[in-house]
Structure formats: C-alpha cells, structure tokens
Amino acid sequence: MPSQFRAWAQLVRIPNTLTACADVFAGFTLAAGGWWLLSGIVGSLVACAAASVCLYWAGMVLNDVNDVVVDTAQRRNGPLVRGIISVETARVAGWGLLVTGIALAALSAYVLPSTDQSAPRWIVGATAGVLAASIVAYDSWLKATLIGPLLMGLCRAFNLLLGFSLGSCIEWQNELDWYSLAIATVGHFSFVVGITLAARREGLLQQSSVRLAWSWASSVFGVIAIALCSAWSINRPLRLDPTGLFPILVFLLALPWLRRAVVSIQSPGVATLVPAIKQAILTIIFLDAAIALQFGGNLPGIMVCSLAIPTLALSRIFRVT
C-alpha cells in the first residue's frame, strides 16, 4: 500500500468513516421512514452521506492540524508528526473538505425528486453549515476545555440532523416525528460526549476509574435515550414494540461495548480503554441500524448494520483513534 495513501487514510481515521453515513441514514428514516421505497431517492441520499463523510474527514484532519504541536511533544505516531503529510497541506485539505461537505449537502436537497415545493430545502445546507461550525469550534483551543466533549457531541447530533433535514423535505406536509428525533438526538449527543471524555487521556497513561465511570455513564444515558426514542412516536408504523422489543434490541447491540467499558473502569489503562473506545465507535453503527430498522423497516436496518463489516475490516488495517 503506497505510504501517501496510507498516511491520508490514517489522517482521516478511515475505519470510522461509515459511522457518519450511518447517522445520515438513521436520521433520514426518522423523517421519511422506508426510504428504499421512494423513487429516485438513492442519488440524493448518497450525496448527503458523501457530504457527511467530507465533513467527518475535515474534522479529523483539522483535529490533527490543531494538535500537531502536542502530538509531536508526546511522540504520537501520526502522519503530520512524521512529516509524511505537511501541516499546511493538511490544513488546506481540511478546509476544502468542509466547503465540499456543505456544497454536497445543499446539492443533495436540490436533486431530491418529487418533494413538496414548499419544503425549505435550504435547511439541509444550513444544517451542514452548523455541523461544519461545530467541527471548527471543536478543532480549536476549545477542545481542551470543558466545552470540548460537548462540541464533539454536537457534531454527532448535527450529523443525525443532517439526514433528518433531508428526509423532512419529503415529509414536510405531514407531521414530522419531532419527539423521536429529539430523544434520538440527545442519545447520540450523550453517547459521543461519553466516548470523548473517556478518550481524553488515552495516550498519556493517566486513567482514573472514577473519571471513566462518569464518562461511560454519559454513554449509557445515550443508549437509554436511543432505546426510548420511539416510545412517543407519532404517525409512524414501527417495526418493533417501542417499549419492549426495541429497547431490548438496543441494549443487546450495546452490550459488547458495555462489557469493555466496565473492564476499562475496573482496570484503567490504555490496554483496556482503547478496545472500549473502538467498540463504542462501532456501536454507533449498530444504534443507527436499530433506528433505521424501527422507523424504516428491515431493509434500511440491514443496510445500515452491514456498514459494520467494512468498518471492522478497515479497523484491522488502520488505527481507529
């Protein structure tokens, strides 16, 4: 594998890429339901997912640009630290990906076929713009403050909202499922805040059981919120009982991560924390798949869940964190 390609793949954290797509698909089903039945929707949905990927990659690149001095001091083995990719090249690429992501999001709305002409299609591009602003805010001095994990949670929440905003252009004349969206968004926000807090000192061998317990508690709250996101759903034929089978499914999907999280608390250290973080990132796909199944049906759920296969394969080749 050419060293430049491998360096860029590592810089953008390529194994995590499809978690961004999963968010968009899940958010879309929250608004539009069984999207595979909608004629001509695939191109628009793919464009929106591509926008999310560009924004995710931008966040990863600008994150390393912002951290290059600290990473060099800590001798972290990243492409910028090793000089394989110059800091200036990475900075230009990061901002270019941000602009491309916003443009693709706006395009995805305007190529959406057979939608209500009164639907505010501009909201898709606007949501991408807010997501980009959250990314830039995180990849700044704010990252090291108490606001940092909250900003990362907002990035994941707005990623879900990006898919919802596109789906809302189809369902604008109908009553949108705002209750389910709000609860699912809080779930994504809280889950990722927990991951971010847990990963803050991943490479410094400075782990605290108490700190990890509080961090993972935020993620557990996120899982609970997602498990309950369909309990107050309106005007939506659901696949599973929203207060029975669906919460059980969500907790079963989160169980492998929860087991690793408990181990990381019991025996704090890089050897236990890194697997817990990797499993938590993978769990995002499974949580999104559960949402897609519940609101969209079997096929969307299976399609989103299948994103875990290339994610696992890539994680064996490239670093996840």
Class by alpha and beta content: mainly alpha
Helix content: over 70%
The domain count comes to: 1
The low-confidence parts are none
Mean pLDDT: 91
Number of helices: 13
Intertermini distance: 20 Å
Oligomeric status of the shown chains? single chain
Order of helices and strands: HHHHHHHHHHHHH
Share of β-strand residues:
under 5%
User: How many strands, what sense, and barrel or not for the largest sheet?
Assistant: none
Specify the overall morphology.
globular
Radius of gyration: 19 Å
Q: Quick one: how many beta strands?
A: 0
Characterization of this structure:
72% of the residues lie in helices and 0% in strands. It has one domain (3-315). By secondary structure, it is mainly α. Helix 5 runs antiparallel to helix 6 and helix 9 (209-227) packs antiparallel against helix 10 (245-266).
Give a brief rundown of this model:
This protein is mainly α and 321 residues long. It has 13 helices and no strands. Helices cover 72% and strands 0% of the residues.
Strands, helices and their partners?
Layout lengths: L2 H9 L5 H16 L8 H33 L5 H4 L4 H24 L11 H17 L8 H22 L9 H22 L9 H19 L17 H22 L3 H27 L1 H8 L2 H8 L6
List keywords for this structure.
single chain; 321 residues; mainly alpha
